Amino acid sequence: MWRMSLSENRFPLFRDMREQVAEMGIMPKRSRVTSFACNVGLLMLAVACTHSSARAQSADLVLCDRVAADPSDPDKPKDVKGVTEIAPSDIATAIKFCRTASASSRRAMYQLGRAFAANKQPADAISAYRKAADKGSTSAMVELGVMFGTGTGVPKDEAQARKLFERAAEAGNPRGVTNLAAISNAGGASTDPAKSRAMLMRAAEKNSAEAQYQLGLMLADGIGGPQDDVAARSLFEKAAAQDHPGALERMGEFAQKGRGGPQDSSAAKAYYERAVALGNEDAKDALKRAQCRWTIRDKRGNFVSDLCF
């Protein structure tokens, strides 16, 4: 047990205090000095305990982030990489540390929901997502929307999914914007194209590859505003740099046809090949057409074969 010494030589502040009291003609009793020392000791001990508690909480959040952070979560610190899917071997660790950290962190509460979802506990995942969403986590809103939209763990409710996506989109979450666009394109209630374009623009500025791709499509087709091939190509290029399959395919076509910039067959082929490697079927067809530009037909005009180079 440590002990605090009030030696006058080591603590001139206390010496000065005693001299001031002496000048006033009042000499404190030893019991008062002792009481003062005890109070200071207890105060320092309380501060030390509080600091220790804060560090323990911080450690829980650090471990929670390490195994369960979502790379696309706007709440995620920049120095945390995140994982697309929580590794099976990390699920128990994620649940343990995220549960503790969630008491004071909405990000940890959202990540706890991810851990429960990975452990096939949809009811617990929904509960955690709801709590995180109530605290303002836009990523939790998106995940809840996905669960309502697909009927995972809850009765399917596209209207509720749409509301959640709208909340997340209006708060600037890129996935909220793109999911809102997707649910509208799939036959849901129509969204004002100009409003969708504006929301996608905000998300694209945050370097969301999906938002850049979706906004590029709107600009290329003139939906929700003027057509702009140059701006569309720029957006596709940014998303392609992040290996977005659809954007790579679009960049292939724009380079092949010279839309919004220079025509470059070699670059188009390279874009198509990268998109094909990521499983894009449209790019596969486009690459085949680029390689087989000539069609051989008989005298009657019937197809015989493609001529490829």
Strand content: under 5%
- Secondary-structure element sequence? HHHHHHHHHHHHHHEE
What's the oligomerization state?
single chain
CATH architecture of the domain at 204-309: Alpha Horseshoe
Ends distance: 85 Å
- CATH fold-level name of the domain at 204-309: Serine Threonine Protein Phosphatase 5, Tetratricopeptide repeat
Q: Please name the fourth-level CATH homologous superfamily of the domain at 204-309.
A: Tetratricopeptide repeat domain
- Described by the principal axes of the CA atoms, the overall outline is elongated
Please count the helical segments: 14
Please report the total strand number as a whole number.
2
Describe the fold and architecture.
With 309 residues, the chain is mostly helical. The protein has a domain at 204-309: Alpha Horseshoe (Serine Threonine Protein Phosphatase 5, Tetratricopeptide repeat). Helices cover 65% and strands 3% of the residues. It contains 14 helices and 2 strands, in the order H-H-H-H-H-H-H-H-H-H-H-H-H-H-E-E. It has a two-stranded antiparallel ribbon with strand order 1-2. A hairpin with a 5-residue loop joins strand 1 and strand 2. The chain is elongated and about 75 Å long. The termini are far apart.
